[in-house]
Amino acid sequence: IALEKWNVAPFTVIAAVGIVANGPHLASTWSRVYLHGKERWERPFHYWVVPIAIAVTVVVMTLAVERKHSTYLRTALFYWAFWHFMMQNWGILRIYQRRCGEADRPIAQLERAVLWLGGLYPVLSRLHTGPWILLGAKVKHPTIDLWMVHVALGAFITVGSFYLLIQVRRALRGERIAWI
Hints:
Elements (H helix, E strand, L loop, with lengths): L1 H5 L3 H11 L1 H12 L3 H6 L1 H22 L5 H29 L6 H24 L3 E2 L2 E2 L7 H27 L8
Antiparallel strand pairs: 1-2
Helix pairs in contact: 6-7, 7-8
């Protein structure tokens, strides 16, 4: 919208979102992880190599390879955003599972399936209908038929219903449930 209506460059939009929306998120993560002296040296690949590799890749893709319309970079951003969002939610759910002592129970894996199926359906819907443009550049995507979207929704409803049935039965027996 910003590109079409106000002729704002996609990079400006990404930078603004990165600063305004992700700034607090990154600051809290970095202060908790990177400023903790012991943590960053226990996993040097995760805390040093990966961020540097990502930064170099983004700079090279933006300045040297794709320049104006960075299709590959935007495609990676599209799929990474989905994965990142799902993993954040999984991490939050794991905190509550551990608090209730459910982290090692089979219900924890069922919750993971419900979470991923619940996130997969809207992504498949978007890939089926479009738009396939993200911040002014096309996103590479597989062809998703409508039946695939319906199967994902059906799987989510089936697994979600099974999960809710289990949780209602547990609640009626007086058991504690992680997210309640």
